[in-house]
Amino acid sequence: MKRMFKKIANCTAAAIAATVMVGTVYAGETIVMDGSTTVGPLAKAFAEFYMRQNPGVNITVAESGSGNGAKSIINKTCQVANMSRFMKDTEFKAAADAGVMPVAHVVALDGLPILVHPSNPVRNLTVAQVRQIFTGQITNWKQVGGPDLGIVCVSRDTNSGTYECFNELVMNKEKISDRAEYVGSNGAIRQRVQSTPAAIGYAGLAFVDDTVKALTINGIAPTAANVRDGSYPIARPLFMFTDGYPKLGSHLQRLVTLCLTEEGNSLIKETGFIATTDY
User: Fold this and answer.
1) Can you give the residue range of the structural domain that contains 62?
2) For the chain, give me the number of helices (H) and strands (E)?
3) Which of 141, 186, 193, 279 has the least CB density, counted as fewest CB within 10 Å?
4) Is residue 228 a contact partner of residue 2, using CB atoms and an 8 Å limit?
5) What CATH number is given to the structural domain containing 168?
6) 99 and 179 inside one domain
7) Which of 141, 146, 132, 131 has its CA nearest to residue 233?
8) Domain check: are 241 and 198 in the same one?
């Protein structure tokens, strides 16, 4: 995990140079973004900022899930696929068959906090305990030092990149219990947890507020510093995929590399995510 984040940081240098040394800026156009509900708030912030700076550009952002974002760019119905996971081999093959060459742009880093109701006295779980809760081996909060309440597990839908990351990093691809509830967005996870004292769920860092409590995992809090240094065990990069590398100076290129600018860095922090560069 630490090596992954170091590689991401090292690989941004050339892209920063390309972003700063922009030549011709192209005329107005429409850019369609589709995909992850996790990346959605950041994509909207980027879009709103960019359209203010470039009145001739129209950017739309849909949040249909990472899997649907991949399908949209493969089907050429969007210019940017927002994804909270990397593309699967099957998606790359489908893209190649359609004449599409997906290029990944890492736009931010994200922790995946484990959320409980603020009234829940449990403060820390291990990755193994979270897995046992979601497989149904642990069914009552008293088994992990909490109240005598049956645990309500809330998961993202299986088309979600957040689900894919949780499945890989926490579940080790073990099956989630049939008793788990599935919801269609990170916001829905938060809403269910904030209204249900026995609930447990997971969502991106941008969806943590004072209506829910983020647990420490293996004693490590889901802070920006802990995600960046790789010590928080449930973390991932966030992506914007394009079909090939956009032409330097184009609106598309400037949009997907906005994360490498001072303004983009501020937007990332404002939306609750973690920038890959420092200003």
Assistant:
1) 2-110+237-270
2) 10, 12
3) 279
4) no
5) 3.40.190.10
6) no
7) 131
8) no
- Give the chain's end-to-end CA distance (angstroms, integer): 24
Same structural domain, 68 and 157: no
Bridge partners for 114 per DSSP: 202
Is 211 in the same domain as 124? yes
* CA–CA gap between residue 134 and residue 140 (Å, rounded): 11
Same domain assignment for residues 182 and 244? no
C-beta separation of 50 from 17 below 8 A: no
Q: What is the C-alpha to C-alpha distance for residues 24 and 271, in angstroms, rounded to an integer? A: 30
Per-residue tens of pLDDT for the chain, all 279 residues: 444 444 444 444 333 333 333 333 344 589 999 999 999 999 999 999 999 999 999 999 999 999 999 999 999 999 999 999 999 999 999 999 999 999 999 999 999 999 999 999 999 999 999 999 999 999 999 999 999 999 999 999 998 999 999 999 999 989 999 999 999 999 999 999 999 999 999 999 989 999 999 999 999 999 999 999 999 999 999 999 999 999 999 999 999 999 999 999 999 999 999 998 876
In the DSSP assignment, the letter for residue 140 is B
227 within some domain: no
Split into its structural domains, the chain has a count of 2
Cα distance between residue 257 and residue 12, in whole Å: 10
Does the residue 152 lie in any domain?
A: yes
Local structure of 133: helix, strand or coil: helix
Residue 229: inside a domain: no
